[in-house]
């Protein structure tokens, strides 16, 4: 029996094009100016040091760190400090109303129904927890963060690693078999299944014929109460 659902964002609750065509370019455009004006701020300085650590250059200048971050963006690297800095930059965009967090229309009704039936809802994305709260706090449907009991990002581990799902199960207190992971990416679902979770793959675009997971076109086709 499913007691908790953990959902991915990009390609699952929200259009991948919103992330890649709106959020990522916004962060890239504002990165250098944001770092120039915030690099003395302790939380920003800590992330810049984490980038220096990640590239193995503890003495890297700010300019070199910005270059490394731009290269990470080019390869869509799920770097924890990059994700933290992107979230900080997006905060201004959301607050100014430059964009709202995209939600597929089937998502909110399903989340509301599942929560009303007693199923706990969580988010797991490579985007930082702060970025997740912004997307759902400033979503197309308004602030839907009260629906969620918790959020997980790469601090718990990467999404294609089984240990990440084992850690989330421990942190939420649910048995692995009581957890359902929703994602568009087969390799993430493989890792969750390896940890004993149930899985459903969202096919929002092209078919994935190599997948062994149950597949649905949208959230209305998922029946965790059954
Ligand atoms: C919190 S929305 C931005 C998502 C993001 O930054 C990202 O890299 C998406 O990665 P995912 O592993 O969740 O597909
Ligand atoms: Mg995804």
From TrEMBL:
Q: Does the keyword Transport apply?
A: no
**What are the BP-aspect GO terms?**
L-methionine salvage from methylthioadenosine
| UniProt GO MF annotations | 2,3-diketo-5-methylthiopentyl-1-phosphate enolase activity; 2-hydroxy-3-keto-5-methylthiopentenyl-1-phosphate phosphatase activity; acireductone synthase activity; magnesium ion binding
Q: What is its EC number?
A: 3.1.3.77
Coiled-coil residue windows = none
Q: What's the stated role of this polypeptide?
A: Bifunctional enzyme that catalyzes the enolization of 2,3-diketo-5-methylthiopentyl-1-phosphate (DK-MTP-1-P) into the intermediate 2-hydroxy-3-keto-5-methylthiopentenyl-1-phosphate (HK-MTPenyl-1-P), which is then dephosphorylated to form the acireductone 1,2-dihydroxy-3-keto-5-methylthiopentene (DHK-MTPene).
Protein name, please?
Enolase-phosphatase E1
Name the species this protein comes from.
Mangrovibacter phragmitis
């Amino acid at each position: 029996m499913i007691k908790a659902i953990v959902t991915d964002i990009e390609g699952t609750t929200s259009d991948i094009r919103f992330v890649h065509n709106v959020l990522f370019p916004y962060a890239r455009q504002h990165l250098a100016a944001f770092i120039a004006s915030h690099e003395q701020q302790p939380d920003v300085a800590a992330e810049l040091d984490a980038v220096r650590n990640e590239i193995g250059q503890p003495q890297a200048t700010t300019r070199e760190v910005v270059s490394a971050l731009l290269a990470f963006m080019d390869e869509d690297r799920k770097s924890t400090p990059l994700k933290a800095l992107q979230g900080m930059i997006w905060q201004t965009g959301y607050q100014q109303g430059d964009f709202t967090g995209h939600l597929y229309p089937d998502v909110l009704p399903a989340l509301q129904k599942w929560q009303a039936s007693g199923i706990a809802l969580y988010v797991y994305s490579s985007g930082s927890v702060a970025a997740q709260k912004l997307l759902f706090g400033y979503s197309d449907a308004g602030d839907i963060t009260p629906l969620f009991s918790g959020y997980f990002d790469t601090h718990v581990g990467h999404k294609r690693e089984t240990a990440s799902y084992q850690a989330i199960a421990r942190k939420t207190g649910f048995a692995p078999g009581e957890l359902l992971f929703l994602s568009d990416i087969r390799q993430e679902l493989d890792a969750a299944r390896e940890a004993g979770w149930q899985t459903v793959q969202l096919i929002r675009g092209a078919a994935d014929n190599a997948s062994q997971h149950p597949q649905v076109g949208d959230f209305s086709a998922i029946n965790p109460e059954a």
